[in-house]
Design a protein that fits this description.
Strand content: 35-45%
Radius of gyration: 20 Å
Largest sheet: 6 strands, antiparallel
Number of helices: 1
Distance between the termini: 34 Å
Number of strands: 30
Shape: globular
Structural class: mainly beta
Oligomer: single chain
């Protein structure tokens, strides 16, 4: 794996990333520094297919009087297939990304294991779509995702998404606990419960607000027989070993194709915000308690135009002075990119109108032909927030995107560092 030095984003795709960020809009000024953690294919063939890293996300372990330990988790991904993942890998940095150790494999605790579909068929089960985050009360990183069942290393079996899944990291030993499923005793979750790719909120008392999506048995979607998903937020407890369910909020539904899924939650000045994926668009809802949400609203710019995001994730960057959405969209000279999933943008949200302030939009990670969208956000300190993303080497012209492609993608794992001009006083409060 190649490790490169950081560089600052300058002019990208005709847009300038300036040092000062829109003080007239009331947001928090910041700069963007783009680092490459690693690049290149993972190099291990399965069924004759090239592997690359996907679903990279970061978490920190605070350390008194020194830089935090940064831990990045990544999943080897089978190119040319749909969502076929293997054991999680880990990289870590002691010096805020100046150098990296790893990747480290944890086959015993984060690897595949024997599993069964809901119909009783044999397969291999993996934890996937993993998002690690520091849990202050337990003093551990808690990562959440979903379990998936594979038969013959093909697309996950659709009746095999059994559980929201989790694992905890002990920084003293650099070990992960054996991943487990979260038991959610709710009758409406007949097709399992997924916490894949979700951004959670930890409350001051240590309780966890975990967004999840779940399939509805009675209806079928239009894409490869997928169910229609609904979304709700769970309140859970974590004691350092076990994640347990306490209660659930209301369900949010949209009976269009695969419904609402891959939700992400943020809290800003006491109000909770949930962004949701749909195949044809993206949506937002708000709540006073983080469990019970009002109606969904389609994401739009403040000029009234549709945001243009569809069929991928959006997540939050929270500063004590402003709330930001990170997303991809149409209309960025990117018709050659799968689902218009590059470049990756950040923009401030008007928390009153629930619209994205178009004038604040900036490129976080430039477009190199590959697609983005499977990313994570990590508050590293009051000075910086990281957005970690992989270049997915897929393109409408190339089912397996070659490294020597004409666009410049190299299967990079990026850390886009948001460097705040003013301290983010809320960085460790959620």
């Amino acid at each position: 794996m190649k490790h490169s030095h950081p560089f600052l984003i300058a002019l990208l795709a005709g847009l300038a990333c300036v040092d000062k960020a829109f003080p007239d809009e009331g947001g928090a000024a910041f700069r963007i520094q783009l680092d490459t953690i690693t690049e290149g294919f993972e190099g291990r063939p399965y069924d004759g297919k090239t592997m690359q890293y996907m679903q990279a996300r970061a978490a920190i372990v605070p350390r008194s009087g020194r830089d935090p330990l940064v831990v990045v988790t990544m999943s080897p991904f089978k190119m040319g297939a749909a969502d076929v993942y293997f054991e999680l890998h880990e990289m870590r940095s002691e010096n805020l990304g100046a150098s990296w150790q790893g990747p480290f494999k944890h086959l015993d605790t984060l690897g595949r294991r024997a599993g069964k579909t809901m119909a009783g068929g044999a397969g291999e089960e993996a934890i996937a779509d993993f998002w690690p985050k520091w849990h202050a009360k337990s003093g551990k990183i808690l990562g959440t995702g979903q379990s998936e069942i594979y038969v013959g290393n093909k697309q996950p079996v659709l009746d095999g998404w059994h559980d929201a899944a989790y694992s905890a990291y002990d920084a003293a030993t650099h070990t992960w606990s054996r991943w487990e499923g979260l038991a959610v005793p709710l009758k409406d979750m007949k097709l399992g419960c997924s916490a894949g790719c979700v951004q959670r909120v930890d409350l001051p008392n240590g309780d966890i607000l975990l967004p999840v999506s779940f399939g509805i048995e009675e209806t079928k979607g239009t894409q490869r027989g997928w169910p229609v998903f609904e979304t709700k937020v769970l309140r859970c407890k974590f004691d350092g070993l076990r994640l347990t369910f306490v209660e659930a909020g209301n369900s949010l539904a949209l009976p269009v194709k695969r419904g609402l899924y891959e939700p992400s939650l943020a809290v800003f000045k006491g109000r909770f915000y949930l962004t949701l994926r749909n195949d044809d668009g993206s949506y937002v809802a708000t709540s006073e308690d983080g469990l019970h949400f009002g109606p969904i609203t389609a994401w739009k710019f403040d000029d009234g135009n549709d945001l243009g995001q569809y069929n991928t994730q959006s997540h939050w960057v929270t500063h004590s002075d402003a709330l930001y959405l990170v997303y991809t969209r149409r209309g960025a000279n990117n018709d050659h990119v799968m689902r218009h999933r590059a470049p990756l943008f950040i923009a401030e949200v008007d928390v009153t109108s629930l619209k994205v302030k178009r004038a604040t939009e900036r490129i976080v990670i430039p477009e190199h032909g590959a697609s983005y969208g499977n990313f994570g956000v990590c508050d590293v300190s009051e000075k910086e927030t990281w957005i970690v993303e992989c270049e997915s080497m897929r393109n409408p012209k190339f089912p397996v995107f070659p490294v020597d492609n004409p666009y410049g993608a190299k299967a990079r794992v990026y850390a886009a560092r948001i460097l705040w001009d003013k301290p983010n006083k809320a960085w460790d409060q959620h």
